[in-house]
Structures are given as C-alpha cells and as structure tokens.
Amino acid sequence: MEWAVGVMAAPRYDLNGLRKCLTALEDAGWKPFVFAEPGISADIGEYWPTIYRPNTCVKHPSVVPGPTGKFGNVQNWIQTAADLLQIDETAAAYVTVEDDAVVCTQAKTFMERLLWPSERCGAITIYAANIPDTRKHYPQMFLHRRYGIMGTLFMIWRPECLRQIVWGDGVPAHMATLPCHPADARGVDTWLGNELNRIGWEMWTVTPSLVQHWHPIGRMAYSALGHGPPIGKRQAYRFVGMNANLDQVFGRYLRQVNR
C-alpha cells in the first residue's frame, strides 16, 4: 500500500523529539518527509528529505508566511497537506504528523488492515488523547462524534477528504476569520474537526493510543506553542508501547470486524 507521510517540524530547544518521531516512523515502515519551520537545523535534511519553510512543493494561495518565513500552526498543516498531495498524487492514504509524536512499530501494518472503516471515513487519528470520549472498555476503533479534534498529532487521511479540505472553500473562509496574522494562528485541531463536520466526512479514533505524545523528562517548556508538558488531557490515553503486539491488544475488536 502506498502512503505519503509529512512531519511538521517546529523549532524547539533540541531535536531529540523530532529525531525520535522520524526514527519511529521509519521503524514502522513509513518514509517521512519533513516540513521544517525556520529554526530547524539543516542536519535533519542530511538524513530525511526536508522542505525548509517558506519553501513549498506547490504554493497554496491562502498561505502567507510571517516576516521570518514562519508558517505557523494552522498554515504549516495546510501547506504540508498541499505539499504531500503534490509529492505523491496517487497515495492510498496521507499522514500528517506533529514532530512530538512517537508511533509504535506495528502501527503501519495494523492500520493497513483497517482502512477504511466506513464509506464516509475521511480521517483516522491513531493518537487517542486522555479524554472521556476515548476511554473505552476494550481496545477498538470507533466513530468519534465530536466537534474539534483533541490533538492532531498523527492523522491518517483519505485522499478525497484531504483534497477537499486543502483545496476547497474552507481554507480561505477560515483565513478570513483569523484575528491575527495567519502565521500566528493556532487551533488547527479545532478547525479541522469542525471542517470535517462541515463537509460531511467522519473521523474515527483508535484507542488506546498507538502514539506517544513525547516530552523530555524533567523539562517544562518543550511545546512549540507554549503549552506545558503533556499531562492530563494532553497526554496519550494508555499508550500501547513501542513494541506492542497490536493483534493481541486489539484481538477482540479485530474478531468483531472480521479483519
């Protein structure tokens, strides 16, 4: 199965999280591209194919870099998705990943068995945030009926859905409502959740989480957006572990859906 995977990298005080993210993706069998905001070391480009912002593969007309070339939280997601669609026009699934997401090793082969759970499933998050909605009695993938997404750390997109979001009328409409320069805009998860609902695509969630929200031990300021460490609802719900046997963890669900 053909995948296109884009990692959105923001400058932080070190690159350990980004390296862990990219290495985990490779260990799982994915080949990531990096879309790096200004301030990311050129060293990353020596090991992984990297586009340094404000460079793009295809120019999205609604994306306006800031004075330093920064795209920011919302715009870098939009431009990354547009770039992925340009890099590989025939991928069966597209993945947008934040640079502090570390995925378990079996995630790729596991998810290839589960695409797509319904005809209107446009997106699947394999990062399950620690919120009541995701605390299910047994491991499963479920239709997540909520507005907004609790963290867009690791999203798998159906091609038709992603194209509609990126090149539809929702992006310019959202940009027109921003109260700040687009490069300073936040809340891409809330916007994407609302956009999926608006255009009629479903979002499904895998729980427990196949992705760890990584943060260095003992540090308080790793978040590129100024958040604290990933605790409470910002942490993964029961991360399965890097080497989890997902056939065993999700055995009951797999029997239920005959996969």
Give an overview of the whole structure.
- There is one protein chain.
- The protein has helices spanning 16-28, 72-87, 107-112, 159-167, 170-177, 188-199, 246-249, 251-257, and strands at residues 3-9, 32-36, 50-52, 93-98, 101-103, 121-125, 140-143, 154-157, 202-207, 211-213.
- It is globular and about 50 Å long.
- The chain has 259 residues and is α/β, with parallel strands linked by helices.
- The chain has eight helices and ten strands.
- The strands form two sheets. An eight-stranded mixed sheet has the order 3-2-1-4-8-6-9-7, with helices on both faces.
- The two termini are 16 Å apart.
Entry keywords:
259 residues; single chain; alpha/beta; 10 strands; two-stranded antiparallel ribbon
Helix percentage: 25-40%
Alpha plus pi helix count: 8
Strand order of the largest sheet: 3-2-1-4-8-6-9-7
Gap from first CA to last CA:
16 Å
Large-scale geometry? globular
Structural class: alpha/beta
| Rg measurement, Å | 17 Å
Mean pLDDT: 92
Q: Spans with pLDDT under 50 lasting ≥5 residues? A: none
Helix and strand pattern: EHEEHEEHEEEHHHEEHH
- The total beta strand count reads 10
Proportion of residues in extended strands? 15-25%
The major beta sheet can be summarized as: 8 strands, mixed
Blueprint (SSEs and pairs):
Layout: E1 3-9, H1 16-28, E2 32-36, E3 50-52, H2 72-87, E4 93-98, E5 101-103, H3 107-112, E6 121-125, E7 140-143, E8 154-157, H4 159-167, H5 170-177, H6 188-199, E9 202-207, E10 211-213, H7 246-249, H8 251-257
